[in-house]
Design a protein that fits this description.
By secondary structure, the protein is α+β, with helices and mostly antiparallel strands. Among the domains are: 4-84, no CATH class; 210-356, Dna Topoisomerase Vi A Subunit, Chain: A, domain 2. 36% of the residues lie in helices and 21% in strands. Strands 5-6-9-10-11 form a 5-stranded antiparallel sheet, covered by helices on one side. Strands 12-14-13-15-16 form a 5-stranded mixed sheet, with helices on both faces. Strand 1 and strand 2 form a beta hairpin. The termini are far apart. 34% of the residues are buried. Residues 84-111 form a coiled coil.
């Protein structure tokens, strides 16, 4: 692969910090036709192909890479194809499109299997309103279940010589259904998220995440406002702080807001939305080193593009705020539920005053 190192350098400049395991598997993932998650925290991706011009043994890496952070950004591999004839360029495009089509068929199978696995796990879990995690977060469980016995998840190794990936989830692990509310009820569950008693989070692999969310509370003909949050605990805090008056949709992270909010706008065109943004005040852009606050940035971008949509973020007392205190649940735990209620109800009252 003539330009392999140059591609790695481009990914690094973009801000992708490839882990040792990413570097080990990357040569085997090229030409898979699939988007491969990578980088610190699994928040980046690449989708790369190999192209070999005729009459040469040399192979070149082409394709795209990007990030799930900050609502998502991506770029193409930079490569000078000036020496290629137009016929070779056309062949490269045709081969790439064929690989994409084959990968799309395989991906559809993975998504269907993940959905079926999620439903099986959900049915085995038991209803609950509390777990050790929820107790620490001081929220009451809604639209959730719990493992009443340990569960082992196993994903086969991707290539010969590798070990299978194995996760053991203890009893007491929270199980959250990841739903597409625009799909028929029988098909709506796309995946699940597990939150272990220690707070670590794991997604069921290979599910189709964009647009998936969790609804807390009900939407009916009288619903005039709905709240949208990133994390489940923040959703629980929002419900408690507003006396369960409005439904809350949990988008799971800042990047998924760009998918969830437009989907909700299509489903509920007349309902006003309020995004409860995370205030990631210490987070820096990996490319520039500048503070970029992905939570507020993503919420602001989505709110601007969406009709009848506002956003708000938590205000902390700076004297006791820690570096990881970023969302309304952190405010709840740190300063009490009343602090959250005062802030949210104040904003909602202003929205009601101006928009009814």
């Amino acid at each position: 692969m003539e330009n392999y190192q140059k591609v790695l350098d481009q990914m690094a400049v973009f801000g992708i910090e490839l882990r040792d395991k990413d570097l080990a598997q990357l040569p085997y993932k090229i030409d898979s036709g699939k988007r491969v998650t990578c980088g610190k925290g699994g928040k980046d991706w690449y989708k790369l192909y190999l192209f070999q011009p005729r009459n040469t043994s040399k192979k070149w890496v082409t394709g795209t890479f990007g990030t799930y952070r900050n609502g998502g950004a991506w770029c193409k591999v930079e490569q000078d194809w000036a020496e290629l004839s137009q016929a070779e360029r056309d062949r490269m495009v045709a081969e790439r499109e064929a690989a994409k089509a084959a990968a799309a068929i395989e991906r559809a199978k993975e998504i269907a299997n993940a959905s079926a696995d999620a439903l099986t796990i959900w049915r085995k879990a038991v209803p609950t309103q509390t777990t050790l995690y929820l107790e620490r977060k001081q929220v009451i469980g809604e639209t959730c279940r719990m493992l009443d016995q340990s569960l082992t998840l196993r994903w086969p190794a991707q290539r010969k010589g590798e070990d299978d990936t194995v996760w053991t989830l203890p009893a007491g692990t929270l199980v959250l259904p990841l739903m597409r509310y625009d799909m028929p009820r029988a098909e709506a569950m796309r995946g699940v998220q597990f939150i272990k008693p220690d707070g670590s989070k794991i997604y069921l692999r290979q599910f189709d995440k964009p647009g998936c969310c969790i609804r807390l509370g009900e939407v009916n003909a009288d619903t005039a406002l709905m709240l949208v949050v990133e994390g489940y605990a923040t959703g629980g805090t929002a419900r408690r702080a507003t006396a369960y008056a409005w439904p809350v949709f949990v988008a799971m992270d800042a990047g998924n807001l760009a998918h969830v909010v437009p989907l909700l706008r299509e489903l509920y065109p007349d309902v006003r939305m309020l995004i409860l943004a995370d205030d990631d005040y210490r987070t820096r852009d990996k490319r520039t080193g500048q503070l970029n606050n992905p939570g507020r940035t993503a919420a602001k971008a989505v709110a601007r593009k969406t009709e009848r949509c506002d956003f708000v973020w938590p205000i902390f007392n700076p004297t006791n705020r820690g570096p990881k205190d970023t969302d309304f649940n952190d405010l709840h735990v740190l300063e009490g539920l009343g602090a959250v209620s005062d802030q949210l109800m104040g904003v909602i009252q202003e929205i009601t005053k101006h928009h009814g």
